[in-house]
Structure of Exodeoxyribonuclease III:
Amino acid sequence: MRIATFNINGIRARLPRVIEWLEETRPAVACFQEIKCQDENFPHDAFEAIGYKAIWQGQKSFNGVAILARDETPVEVIRGLPGDPEDEQSRYLEADVGGVRIACLYLPNGNPRPGPKFDYKLRWMERLRNRMAAIWAEEVPAVVLGDFNVIPEDKDVWSPAAMADDALMQPESRDAYMRLLHDGWTDAIQAHNPRGGVWTYWDYQAGAWQRDHGFRIDHILLSPECADRLIATGVDRAYRGREKASDHAPVWVELRT
């Protein structure tokens, strides 16, 4: 069972690339972030034409998440991350697919810091931890995946010095991420690539893709039930080099059924 995540950076603008990737790799579940469209403009018909059913939480011009499943409709569990009734940003969607709980997220970037955006990021991460604890308590096989906007360790970035002041690498961001792992969740990419050097994002600026100046911020966290089923994991980095590509590459895990 292949489960993937892809920050698409505008799903309508990159729809040909999305369809291309789905048809070429055929994941059982595909989670998207930054769909950047309102609910009524989500191109669900294009996905249904190639065998995928979708649920989504849109937002005008930015944010937005979606979960697609091949040959079945995801069964929605939660729309929006619990813990702050005033939070109107579309960043979290949770569903059951094929006996697995799927939590798709787009964690706040947090820049500039210090300031309200960084404070919001840290509060959001604490709410996420609380929700992941609730999922854990249900004792269901679970995969929490998406754009976490956290570079976990120095080995996950081409140049720690270049990103030293960024919210993605601050001690508070890293500590909040590590608390999730200490709670018992497995970072799938880390588990199969302990030496690091795996990137999932390359900026559009300064020739980052051509120079391989990337870093890892798209993560897939597995509950123990899913970690025991982990066969393989990877990054479809070739899609970052295609015409009109997202600045992220798809990330995936393969679980034993």
